[in-house]
Amino acid sequence: MIKFSFTLNPFCTCNIPKPRSKLQTVNGFFRPTAEEKAFSKTHPPFLFTKISALFLLFLCFLLYPFPAKHAVVSPCSRASRIINIIFNSPTILRWNVVGNGKGLECIYRNNYTEEEEKGVAVLSVDEYNDIQWLVRCPLPPTNFSSVVTLRSRGTITIADTTVVAMNYWENLAYEAVLDGNTAVVFVKGISHRQDKASDPNRFRCHFGFGNQNYILTSKALTAAQEVVRCALPKSLEIHPEKSQGIRATVSFQLPMRNHHHRTIFVPSVAKLSSSKFEINTPKHDLCVCTMLWNQADSIREWITYHSWLGVQKWFIYDNNSDDGIESVINKLDLEGFNVSRHVWPWIKTQEAGFSHCAIKAKSECNWVSFMDVDEFYYFPNLPGHGALRTLVSNHTSSPSIGELRTRCHSFGPSGLRSPPKNGVTVGYTCRLQRPERHKSIVRPEALDTTLMMWAKFYRRVATYVADWKDSQNEGSRDRAPGLGTEPIEPADWRLRFCEVWDTGLRDVVLANLDDVLPRGRYLGGIDI
Ligand SMILES: *[C@@H]1O[C@H](CO)[C@@H](O)[C@H](O)[C@H]1NC(C)=O
Ligand SMILES: *[C@@H]1O[C@H](CO)[C@@H](O)[C@H](O)[C@H]1NC(C)=O
Ligand SMILES: *[C@@H]1O[C@H](CO)[C@@H](O)[C@H](O)[C@H]1NC(C)=O
Ligand SMILES: *[C@@H]1O[C@H](CO)[C@@H](O)[C@H](O)[C@H]1NC(C)=O
Ligand SMILES: *[C@@H]1O[C@H](CO)[C@@H](O)[C@H](O)[C@H]1NC(C)=O
Fold it and tell me: Domain range holding 102?
């Protein structure tokens, strides 16, 4: 049995220099004094332990340091502005879908006069998986109820029973994936226990061809965090290729009076899929899973840089972006970066998304890093090109190592007033002294069957603060410290979080990747 036991930097507190006084301010931005420059040279800030090899530069707050100008709709209101709809694609619709939904309408029915209908053009259409499409509709106009159907402009009404407004589904099986001789089903609304595994005997798994037509039933093997692992029914185990596209769901017993129970079937849009990876192809050494929303501007720099460090494959889980990130990703993929995008529109399902990604990556990757688009690995003491890949692949043959950990440093706005034109790796040069949390690279094969790892070491890191006004995470360590919830930029914001002048990453990028920086060459000087 493989255990997660290995850390490169096991203790966050060893040998950390004492926090030092704030750097000197010159004309509103920070410059290192001669003494500090000398200090940085003799004390590379990341050499914490003798075995320190891996260092994660953590830029989590960097992409949002300009709240006043870059105010984004709060995540909640953003989510409630769209209605996600999943439907099975009749081939007749493909042309509509290829044209990104032009010609498709969401049809709403008047609450008071049953006959009156209103059609509104869809916001976007996405591929949900090989078999299903995701359509985004605007909220219904006043006095109209939520989407009742989709219509091809003209006359064809899409009569599809799975056309349902997903936002209103509290209970839903939304994804299912084959994993060896089990099926993993992702379900919303079956458990309120965040960190604990549930008793799998409470659940049964069902497979079939429609919401009312589940012909096969099997045992639930584990259940945790709304992820249920099911035994495969014998007939599917013998012919796994036939399971592709079969609908899956779970049922549970609802206690009633007199010791009776009622069986509740969770509604499902989840269809079984499996990894298409050729078994004979050698695995990638290192892949990355990420979950993002509207980061089209930053993703090229992030992927280019980490590919140079040795990342070979990217799984991008896209949470309803509408900034054209799809075309950026397609372009990167065409350029040979091996990037794929997966639509992941579900609310509060980030850990589930990473579990899903881990299963997908298992057949293709020896190691998977789970990270955000504003986080960068950086090695002060290793040659850069391919360094991360060499480092992780050095541990592939030690089966007792299931996780590699690094510590992270947060960079502040570094005196900037607007997002740096030369990319974040070059623009951000000032950070906090103390490392804050850790990041993990895991061996997906070593994940335990409940996929509960996230509860243990990912959960806190997982909530990304897309909006500094979002008070939901108030008090959490994932929030930039010192942020209020008032919609004004704190006066000293751009000078915050600046304790150490650290140009290590910038120097590496300028020396090695200058010509691939997203926004042209670095022109010198500091953007203030
Ligand atoms: C996607 O974004 C919405 C709106 O911000 C949020 O409520 C939801 O939890 C996000 N989903 C994931 C998986 O992060
Ligand atoms: C909604 O319906 C009510 C009751 O029929 C009506 O008074 C109101 O004007 C309607 N609002 C709109 C925007 O149509
Ligand atoms: C119309 O009906 C839907 C549910 O069918 C409800 O959610 C909505 O609030 C109603 N709208 C109005 C204006 O009554
Ligand atoms: C993309 O994947 C292929 C194999 O599937 C590999 O040969 C190639 O090096 C990868 N590209 C990058 C940039 O790592
Ligand atoms: C990987 O292992 C080789 C051989 O043991 C060693 O020379 C090299 O320094 C290691 N590289 C890293 C990045 O740990």
Answer: 69-167
